[in-house]
Amino acid sequence: QLVESGGGLVKPGGSLTLSCAGSGFTFSDAWMSWVRQAPGKGLDWVGRIKSKADGGTTDYGTPVKGRFTISRDDSKNMLFLQMNSLTTEDTAVYYCNTDPVWGQGTLVTVSS
Amino acid sequence: DIQMTQSPSTLSASVGDRVTITCRASQNINSWLAWYQQKPGRAPKLLMYKASSLESGVPSRFSGSGSGTEFTLTISSLQPDDFATYYCQQYNSSPLTFGQGTRLEIK
User: Fold this and answer.
1) Which residues, other chains included, contact A60 with Cβ-Cβ below 8 Å and sequence gap of 6+?
2) What is the pLDDT of residues B83-94, one digit of tens each?
3) Interface contact flag, A62 B87, Cβ < 8 Å
4) Chain B touched by A75 (CB under 8 Å)
């Protein structure tokens, strides 16, 4: 399973880091992704990090490129999403996933 | 970025109906397409991958087809549990992109 944490209220221009704890599968072998969903809207792919065996590289969706950073700590089965320069457009439920497993999501609200 | 366009945006149907949702890609994505089902307040659930492969545990009334730029998800006989929103996603190239979703509602 996957369990996200770290969501909350942050002011525009601020930063926040989300965490995702994995269990029940070989975390180090998994390509891990973040997907978000703004209130009442569709799914938006945030980005992913490949397994270290596959290079450990990251890719990002266009709206977050240059502002968000995905990292992982395989020793702790943890995935992270560092979010900087947040705007109200980043308000969403953020899910971590490695298909077919999804977390329950954590809500990030960007508001003054 | 590859644009994914689903149609229709909303579909009204009855239990027992056969329904089809279409997903079109703005460029060739081969068969690198997944379908997800999402219910309100819940995380998405993977239904299909590689366009036509059924995820383990998903009922066989779900099927997928297509390759290149045009894809379909078909539910052969709608059940009450199937009323939800459906999304396609291409994973042929980064950034991965989703369709805007198709809401399947009870007629």
Assistant:
1) A46, A47, A66, A68, A70, B95
2) 999 999 999 999
3) no
4) no
